[in-house]
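The records we work with from here on pair a chain with its fold. Taken together, the tokens spell out the fold as the letters spell out the chain. The record below shows the convention in full.
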Amino acid sequence: AGALVQVYTDGTVLVTHGGVEMGQGLHTKVSQVAASAFNIPVSCVFISETSTDKVPNSSPTAASASSDMYGAAVLDACEQIKSRMKTIASDNKHASFAE
């Protein structure tokens, strides 16, 4: 499973993952993972449709296993971004995520 997470200067986040939404709530679940990771409202997280030009070689979408696989991929991507942003965040301890 793979995920691409992009953070924009207005504080919104775009998540692209390799799973296919088939009514099982996958997009909702990965949105919640990203929102929780960045401590932002779910309304600030947007989901891009699955596309192999963004996230190649995705795993099969299969029942609740997809939530685990793609949720973990999104969390990993968010954690990588947060670690890169630590120096900026440490200089602005009281700033919101968007700031």
Summary: The chain has a mean pLDDT of 86. Residues 65-84 form the longest helix (20 residues).
